[in-house]
Write a sequence for this structure.
């Protein structure tokens, strides 16, 4: 029996939600359903039940301490692994799938698959939120142990695979599964509803959209600098920032700093902070945006790039590994450390002919990413069934 284990972090973080739903789709059919169970933190069953037709759902009783420790990548004691092994034994699980890695799964009595996503603590040591002592050591321990103990590791780009090989020399099989949002169906949002959403947030066109938490490595400050320079040159562009008071943004006062700079740069008419958005609001802002702007500093693929492609929204993104691989020809690549480069990227995206070309390239690229993803899932499924049969 195969067990897909979904904890809180697998149903909150966008990248892990993508993996979680894809694993469900991979096995949720009349042929495979007798070989697979989904074990879910009972608090979050309602978040996935609508996506499941055939698979049996087993609720897991997860205590608050364990939920928080897993969410924050903290070291989880061996007792948690023991409890997990009991759950595995009682449900006759012979292979485990865990969308996100943790310490406890390294001590399981069965082969398992998990993912390695952000290696920012290794790649960007200058960023405080990725390399503070507690975060660095906990991530390093989790990644090192899983690279040596997992049967399979998933990674979201070929660039990420190369970093994984360099830093951790894994014994595991590695499958590259991009953020292709396979199975994502966009709801039709009528024009009146779109207009009401834009009016709700007092959004003026043209604008660029940045759906992200207000974390330092997301590079919002250089976007403010770029908008200020463009305004001085007579180019009046609006930027929509999302996100709220997360643990990291509170710790580094990112939101307060950004809003202070918005004021002293005289950009209060140019920058809108929406807070968290629902799915309809996010889709509306993609559809009506000139582009997604996302010059983040950590070289890893991002779900919003794929979301933008699906919505026909071109991209201004970082020219560093991982992101440039995901974007390919669907956007304009800029140096995220160079304000002038960001300015130039914004100027280029305002060209209507180029923008239309990038929209077309985006649809092509998301299909390419889906083909890569489909092939990896197909190989993984064949591998896992060869082990349990």
């Amino acid at each position: 029996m195969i067990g897909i284990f979904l904890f809180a972090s697998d149903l909150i973080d966008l990248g892990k939600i993508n993996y979680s739903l894809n694993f469900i789709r991979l096995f949720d059919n009349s042929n495979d359903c007798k070989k697979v169970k989904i074990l879910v933190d009972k608090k979050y069953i309602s978040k996935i039940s609508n996506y499941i037709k055939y698979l049996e759902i087993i609720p897991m009783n997860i205590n608050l301490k364990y939920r928080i420790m897993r969410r924050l990548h903290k070291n989880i004691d061996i007792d948690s692994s023991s409890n997990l092994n009991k759950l595995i034994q009682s449900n006759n699980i012979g292979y485990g799938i865990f969308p996100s890695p943790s310490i406890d799964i390294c001590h399981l009595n069965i082969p398992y698959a998990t993912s390695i996503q952000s290696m920012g603590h290794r790649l960007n040591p200058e960023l405080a939120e990725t390399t503070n002592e507690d975060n660095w050591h906990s991530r390093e321990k989790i990644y090192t142990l899983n690279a040596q103990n997992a049967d399979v590791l998933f990674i979201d780009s070929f660039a990420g695979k190369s970093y994984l090989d360099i830093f951790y020399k894994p014994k595991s099989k590695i499958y590259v599964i991009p953020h292709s949002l396979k199975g994502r169906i966009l709801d039709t949002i009528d024009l009146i509803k779109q207009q009401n959403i834009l009016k709700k947030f007092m959004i003026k066109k043209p604008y660029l959209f940045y759906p992200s938490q207000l974390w330092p490595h997301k590079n919002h400050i250089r976007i403010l600098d770029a908008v200020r320079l463009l305004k001085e040159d007579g180019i009046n562009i609006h930027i929509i920032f999302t996100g709220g008071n997360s643990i990291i943004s509170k710790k580094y006062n990112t939101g307060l700093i950004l809003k202070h700079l918005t004021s002293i740069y005289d950009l209060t008419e140019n920058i809108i902070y929406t807070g968290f958005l629902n799915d309809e609001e996010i889709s509306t802002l993609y559809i009506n945006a000139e582009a997604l702007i996302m010059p983040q500093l950590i070289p890893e693929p991002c779900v919003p790039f794929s979301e933008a492609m699906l919505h026909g929204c071109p991209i201004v993104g970082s020219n560093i590994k991982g992101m440039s691989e995901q974007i390919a020809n669907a956007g304009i690549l800029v140096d995220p450390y160079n304000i002038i480069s960001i300015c130039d990227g914004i100027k280029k995206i305002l060209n209507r002919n180029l923008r239309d070309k990038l929209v077309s390239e985006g649809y092509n690229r998301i299909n390419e990413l889906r083909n890569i993803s489909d092939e990896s899932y197909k190989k993984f499924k064949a591998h896992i069934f060869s082990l349990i049969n």
About this structure: The mean pLDDT is 87. The longest strand covers residues 36-41.
